[in-house]
Amino acid sequence: MSGVWSDRVPTSPVVGCAHQRVSWPTVATPARTAADLSAEVGRIEAVLTKLLRGGHIQRLHDQLAGGEPRIDRAAYRVLGHIADAGPLRLSELAGLLGVDVSTVSRQVSDLERRALVARRADPLDRRAALLTLTDEGSATLDELRRLRRRVLGDLLAGWPPGDRDQLSRLLQRLVDDIEAFTGPVGLAAPRQEDP
């Protein structure tokens, strides 16, 4: 069945020499050709591109912010990582965001000026500083997360519960598979105490 993709259910393999083939019967589902798989992957890639780069996320973020640029998407990501990963060094935050330290330094400086982020001494290394959210930063992030969830809930309200559940499971599966391929993101390595 060279060149044909199909779902297979394992049965007892043919026992014998290493060069013998294992017998895997096909399930009674339609076989997909390599061209079918390629077309499916192409459609998925196109939808993901439209979702992520088509401006949908930015327009949603702008609408959630009430038209006023309280914080942009980059600042939202910075606040979210600091909140979720705990106090972070600037270099750790840059690693989580996948950007250069100088880039995140400018973003953090702006958030400090706006009293959303504060620096405090790192107890493991007094020469370093840790970034934390201020009370105002936490409140701003909580409000935006609440608004995002409300809008997402409104968008999905007309979907049957099974479809919402399936979307959640499939998105998580996609994230898990991407992280298995590229390595996990969103977690800072724990700081080690100096010996």
Furnish the topology, listing elements before pairings.
Layout: E1 4-5, E2 32-33, H1 34-53, H2 56-64, H3 73-85, H4 90-97, H5 101-113, E3 117-122, E4 125-133, H6 135-156, H7 161-182
Antiparallel strand pairs: 1-2, 3-4
Summarize the structure.
The protein is mainly alpha-helical and 195 residues long.
Account of the 3D structure:
The chain is mainly α. It has two domains: about 35-65; about 65-180, Winged helix-like DNA-binding domain superfamily/Winged helix DNA-binding domain (Arc Repressor Mutant, subunit A, Orthogonal Bundle), CATH 1.10.10.10. Helices cover about 55% and strands about 10% of the residues. It has helices at about 35-55, 55-65, 75-85, 90-95, 100-115, 135-155, 160-180; strands at about 5, 30-35, 115-120, 125-135. The strands form two sheets. It has a two-stranded antiparallel sheet with strand order 1-2. A two-stranded antiparallel ribbon has the order 3-4. The radius of gyration is 24 Å and the shape is globular.
